[in-house]
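RECORD TYPE: inverse folding
INPUT: structure tokens
STRUCTURE:
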């Protein structure tokens, strides 16, 4: 029988729950703030699944790897700066291999920077009830202030199982294709040796010791056990097996399943949002009013408060866009800021007459015969959602244009038409500076 501390220098903590009801079956130092190490990636993946569900990014989106992501220390899969790889492979690498380069790339793809993504992770933690968790990065390497608890990480494991069951099988894969190579699961020893084990995540740093959140199912029962501070993989796994056994002994054969509700967020403001301090803007999941902003007197440009409200409305509008198999050619998670970089000169391609579905009638008038294309998508609905987000992102140049979805043999083109050549070129440059793919559509 192992002693609780297992002779480690890192502090020991443990938690065991009945996953069905959330009932606590055992705890030891469960609320002590400790280094989570790569248990962090459970939240990285949770936010990634959330972003796919909300239509912010697709599993098929090709993510460009930054120098920062490529330079992360091991564990890693060896991503190269400038390389492009599908988002689904980054998810697999982070979940199975616990790859730090993949985790950073996930954060940058969704939020534009790892720092912004870490703030989103922390907001999500608070919304899930993980009150003692603060994230500073997407991978879990030791950093000042990057802390969690055994209780919070147990909660995180349960939320992955119930909130995103369609992805949960990732954590039980012994090996998986990560795009550039096949990788092995860091938790394969427990998965292979403990009956019913199907996840979830390992973690190790010198400051944290050997950590693990494990889940196992036997019959109608599912137990989640967490250990912080193991002294080795073997002793940590042995302790987790003991805790899982304890959980199965203590849990009732039948228990009510109390699935948690999806989190309800309250938008937080950055230090730059000085005009909005003290105001609370709650994000909902359904559209309740017109997406068209009311024009301001004198034609003034929208201020920061209006932009934040528009961003909230966009999130509302795309909350139901769950078509993860559609090919997404744009990245829509960038902040609403004016471009500072000079992108490549947009390409011009002639229009081709095809059956089309007009999603908004233009009132711009005139004979302007240029437009822009912002991607091809697998469904009409997805194309319309991207057009809506893009219109709100780039109001100065696209206001009054015709939003038009054109059905092609291999998908649906998302176009803005009714622009002159100069405006079309300007709109494309500004969108490309935000990492949104764009082509000018010229007269046939």
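DESIGNED SEQUENCE:
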């Amino acid at each position: 029988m192992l002693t609780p501390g297992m002779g480690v220098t890192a502090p020991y903590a443990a938690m065991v729950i009945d996953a069905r009801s959330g009932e606590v079956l055992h705890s030891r130092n469960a609320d002590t703030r400790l280094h989570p190490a790569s248990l962090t990636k459970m939240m990285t993946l949770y936010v990634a699944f959330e972003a796919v569900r909300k239509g912010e990014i697709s599993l098929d989106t090709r993510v460009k790897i930054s120098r920062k992501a490529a330079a992360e220390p091991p564990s890693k899969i060896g991503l190269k700066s400038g390389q492009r790889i599908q988002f689904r492979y980054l998810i697999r690498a982070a979940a199975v291999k616990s790859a730090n380069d993949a985790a950073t790339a996930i954060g940058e793809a969704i939020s534009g920077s790892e720092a912004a993504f870490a703030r989103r992770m922390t907001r999500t933690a608070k919304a899930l009830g993980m009150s003692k968790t603060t994230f500073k990065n997407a991978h879990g390497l030791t950093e000042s202030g990057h802390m969690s608890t055994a209780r919070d990480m147990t909660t995180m494991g349960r939320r992955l199982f119930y909130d995103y069951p369609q992805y949960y099988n990732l954590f039980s894969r012994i090996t998986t294709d990560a795009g550039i190579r096949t990788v092995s699961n860091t938790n394969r020893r427990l998965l292979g040796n403990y009956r019913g084990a199907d996840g979830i995540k390992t973690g190790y740093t010198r400051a944290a010791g050997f950590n693990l959140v494990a889940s196992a199912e036997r019959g109608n029962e599912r137990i989640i056990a967490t250990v912080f501070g193991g002294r080795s993989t073997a002793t940590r796994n042995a302790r987790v097996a003991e805790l899982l056994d304890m959980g199965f002994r203590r849990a009732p054969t039948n228990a009510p399943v109390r699935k948690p509700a999806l989190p309800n967020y309250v938008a937080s403001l950055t230090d730059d949002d000085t005009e909005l301090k003290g105001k609370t803007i709650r994000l909902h999941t359904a559209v309740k009013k017109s997406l068209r902003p009311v024009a301001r007197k004198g034609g003034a440009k929208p201020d920061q408060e209006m932009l934040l409200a528009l961003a909230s409305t966009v999130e509302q509008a795309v909350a139901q866009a769950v078509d993860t198999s559609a090919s997404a050619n744009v990245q829509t998670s960038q902040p609403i800021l004016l471009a500072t970089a000079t992108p490549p000169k947009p390409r011009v391609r002639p229009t081709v007459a095809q059956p089309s579905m007009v999603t908004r009638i233009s009132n711009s008038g005139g004979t302007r015969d240029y437009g822009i294309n912002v991607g091809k998508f697998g469904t009409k609905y997805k194309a319309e959602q991207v057009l809506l987000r893009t219109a709100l992102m780039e109001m100065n140049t696209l206001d009054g244009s015709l939003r038009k979805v054109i059905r092609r043999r291999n998908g649906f083109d998302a176009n803005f038409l009714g622009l002159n050549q100069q405006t079309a070129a300007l709109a494309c440059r500004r969108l490309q500076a935000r990492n949104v793919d764009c082509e000018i559509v010229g007269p046939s």
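NOTES: The mean pLDDT is 81.
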